[in-house]
Design brief:
Length: 79
Amino acid sequence: MLMNEICPVCGGPTVLKKVTEIIRGGKHTAIIQVEAEVCLHCGERLYTPEFVRKCEQIKAKLEKEETKDFQPVGVAYQA
């Protein structure tokens, strides 16, 4: 169900899409798949307030290095 049928940025139409969101906190990164409204004209992503709060909680956990609830998917290196 669309909350916003019109993009608040450009006025274009929005559709529901499955998107990947990357959240960084400290030296850690989390990747989340979520359904969001996406503008067909400018690409703006619109999220629910609940999802925004969830992202803030995940970022706080990453910054505190509380990663036991996350599944590791690889290792990154800086050159």
